[in-house]
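Target protein
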Amino acid sequence: MVLAAKKLRAIGVLGLNERNTDFIMRLNPRRLFPRVDDKVLTKELALAAGMAVPDLYGVIAHQAEARNFAAMVGDRSSFVIKPARGSGGDGILVVIGRNQHKRDSFRLSNGMLISEGEILHHISNIVGGQYSLSGNRDKALIEYCVRFDPTFAEVSYQGVPDIRVVVYRGYPAMAMVRLPTRASDGKANLHQGAVGVGVDISTGKTLNGVLDDVVVEEHPDTGALVADLQIPHWDFILESSARGYDVTGLGYLGVDMVIDNDRGPLILEMNARPGLNIQIANCAGLSNRVRRIDEIYDSSATPEMRAAIARQEFPA
């Protein structure tokens, strides 16, 4: 075990304890955590900074407000319900259509039908804190349902892929695409069974993937190869991720984005505690990259400049 740990350090792999002490505790003041832990506040900050986010149809903060659900969604056939302080994809309902024969019945992204009463019960659970990070009372967000870019059509199962960029002191350090699978129930969450695919920061092209800590070349459900996909709007995605540092003040940050077929890149959420599986997906360690960023760090650099430097410094 000691030998393995030394070998991992030698190739620059960042460990959990080092991440917690040297990055999160040192660079992320706890007073700033609400900026990313509360998705409503994250949206407000992003919008104030001119960053695009999915439209917010409504917020339900109290049990009695659940009766406003029908008015919030109106005649829309698709929308997403999520906890404001949730994590790991828990508590998210993705509605993609209505039952043509029964208007108060909806179809989820996994194909199942759900009644309006069941949705209201789920909202009640969210507000009660069932999915919140702390277990305290929460708010339910009703927002726009992203229609993913066709680039990912062959490598996604019943869900919307997202792009995670780890940003260190404002510089994009590493990136991956998270692809929903049958096992993840259509959610882009690695812990629930999604595939993480590394991205060459210099070009925006995908590399090989990781599934349950095992390197894979194909999507487990579609059989399509996950490498060599060109991510659209890559320069804009990197620049938006770099701007996340200016918006949140967090020195170690995960920025999650989606590419909507009609609206282009949208900020989905930001994370003060991004995980480390991104290193497996990229077959590279974060430690070497953050050391390089410390060497070239320029406090006066704009988000656009920091993104351009990352493209130069971190080719696959």
Residues 1-5 have pLDDT under 50 and may be disordered.
